Amino acid sequence: MEGIPLYAYLLLSALLFAIGTVGVLIKRNPIIIFMCIELMLNAANLSFLAFAKYHSAPLAAGSLEQWQVHMTGQMAVVFVMAVAAAEVAVGLGIIMAIFRLRHDVDIDEMSTMRG
Amino acid sequence: MQTGLTPAPIDWVLLMPLLIVFGTGVVGMCIEMLRPRSNNNAIVATTLLGLAAAAAYLIGTWEYPTIHTFGELFLSDRVAKILQLLIIAITFTTVLYSEGYLRERRLPFGEYYPLLVWSATGAMIMATSTNLLIVFLGLEVLSISLYILAGLSNREQQSQEAALKYFLLGAFASAFLLYGISLLYGATGTTQMEDLRAIWNTPLDKPTVGLLYAGLTLILVGFAFKVALVPFHMWTPDVYQGAPTSVTGFMAAAAKVGAFAALVRFLDYATPMSDAWVPMLSALAILTMTVGNLVALVQKDVKRILAYSSIAHAGYVLVAVVAYGVLSREGSAAQPVSVVYYLIAYSFMTVGAFAVVSLATRGGRERTELNDLNGLWERAPLPAAMMIVFMASLAGIPLTAGFLGKLLIFRDALDAGLVVLAIALAVNSVISAYYYLRIVLATVVQKPALHAPRFANPNAGLVATCLVCGLAIFALFFAAQPVLRELEAPQEVFVHRGP
Asked: Is A71 on the interface with B (CB under 8 A)?
């Protein structure tokens, strides 16, 4: 894998995922929470790409099998990016709508429903 | 370089129901664009017609061979067909009563129907796909539409809050699911579920096994958020309470059906790892049933009670899932009969119950405290009577589908040797009867206070929804044999590999 071993990618990806998870749990601003979720999605993307490279390396160069294994990971990333973009569109819309109603988007203040 | 660009052979007959449902949404959206701000009758009619056409097509091609098509992404087996039909039925009954409710609630948005239909498309994709990435895409199609629908009431803080909570936790859960999928891809080199089983026939090194188990756990966490299992259920009560009632009913039914369908299929292929997931899911099931029912006891809002009840029901279905996992590992069950049967029963009673609750709306305001339902019996006898049926079925009283469903799960759990789960299920059904009885009392017996809340007039659509759901509950009990036989029927799977 041209110098950088697989575990380095995976470590980085796990780290990004962990930072994202902790951020979602402790932050109070929905936009920052959402950024943390994006970080988690990108952690998954990174591991998809690293695995795509890793799995296709030992297979015969130019073979159909290599192409398929490689493409699965690459396509997954394209799909995830599309999904993330759709989520941004909807999510920011929701946050905007709340801001218009309350002029404040602190997540701890959002407790009109109790039970 | 190999050109791998020969397109996969596609059997359009199997994809057609999905495409019809999706296309219905597109047509609905076009009508909304061409005639903005006029009434929604044309969109409602189109949506109902499209859904009916999809159901008719599905039934018309029922005996079509079970084929694994579209590059082995789609498997349209008996379970998938039944669940697709169920999702179409849920959407149809929801659309039937939505227009009256939305008008009463002053939410005249035509986009509601296309979004609902696209959400159903996502659930249908989840029910048919055997590729983890496609399941993820289906889940996102289902969820993103639901985020918008939950926040449909744009002048109300509760609805907006519900949308934001659902959105943040839903996206959080998807990230877990996706990371799990990437780890499984790392272990197997594909995202196809069947390779998950095949890989256990090859020698595995330690890191690969670690990846497999880590991926499995993350995927289960993702699904646990989606179907609202304790301790991943925190969002459910707030979202169910804040979202417009018709959306809540749809969400409680269709989203759970889709997610459970994908979960069962995934676990089916993950049987070699069942030593890990059977104990994990058993613990979650006990926790989910118990917490869901106990917290429901102290709630005062009907939508919140039903939300906790839906959590508890997710626990019951999970018992069925675990029992099926154990039985199929031993080779004594070929189809998840009790899971599917319970999902069908649960969907009808939930949609019906939320349809009746949606009557507690007048002049743009909705009040859903328990005593706001007082006097419904006088104002709308038929929906109130049907409420008794839905509550009886949810509580598992004999002669209803809910009873037979619980009995099937109980039997499967005992067959699988999961005695603790079976006992927890039985005890929890007894506890749950209490709060269902409270809803019935509030609806039928208790008289309204002096400042009586006003109810929406039950329109034809709502009455139709109540009747369809009520009839389905009895029909599933009295004519259960054909359904169960259909589910148990053996089937041969063909792989579509083109000419």
From this structure: yes
Alpha-carbon distance B56 to B17, whole Å? 9
Instruction: Give yes or no for A3 touching B (CB within 8 A).
Output: no
Residue B2, domain member (yes or no): no
From the list A68, A91, A93, which residue is nearest B171 (CB)?
A91
Instruction: State how many domains chain B has.
Output: 1
Q: Which long-range contacts (CB under 8 A, 24 or more apart) does A81-85 make?
A: A81/A45, A83/A41, A83/B136, A83/B137, A83/B140, A83/B174, A84/A38, A84/A41
- Entry pTM: 0.95
The count of domains in chain A is 1
Q: Range of B397's domain?
A: 12-492
Contact yes or no for A67 and B158 at CB 8 A: no
Distance from CA of A69 to the nearest CA of B (A): 6
Q: Is A103 helix (H, G, I), strand (E, B) or coil?
A: coil
- The verdict on residue B498 lying in a domain is no
Neighbouring C-beta atoms of residue B290, cutoff 10 Å: 17
Chain-chain contact of A101 with B164 (C-beta, under 8 angstroms): no
Q: Do A37 and B241 touch (CB under 8 A)?
A: no
Interacting residues of B136 by C-beta distance below 8 A, sequence separation 6+: A79, A83, B174, B177, B178, B181
| Structural domain contains residue A114 | no
Q: From the candidates B155, B179, B236, which should be mutated to test the interface with A, based on the most A CB atoms within 10 A?
A: B179
Domain-embedded: residue B125: yes
The answer to whether residue A113 is domain-embedded is: no
Range of the domain at A99: 6-107
Residue B243 domain flag: yes
Highest mean pLDDT out of A17-31, A64-78, B358-372: A17-31
In a domain, A115, yes or no: no
Give residue-wise pLDDT tens across range B147-166. 999 999 888 888 999 999 99
Residue B387 confidence (pLDDT): 95
Where residue A28 sits, what CATH number does that domain have?
1.10.287.3510
Establish, for the pair of chains A and B, how many residue pairs have beta carbons separated by less than 8 Å: 139
> Does the beta-carbon distance from B185 to A54 stay under 8 Å?
no
Instruction: Mark which residues 22-61 of A lie under 8 Å from B by CB.
Output: 24, 30, 33-34, 37, 40-41, 43-45, 47-48, 50-51, 54-55
Could you tell me if residue A68 is inside a domain? Answer: yes
Percent of chain B at pLDDT > 90 equals: 72
What DSSP line would sit under B74-89, residue for residue?
Answer: EE--HHHHHHHHHHHH
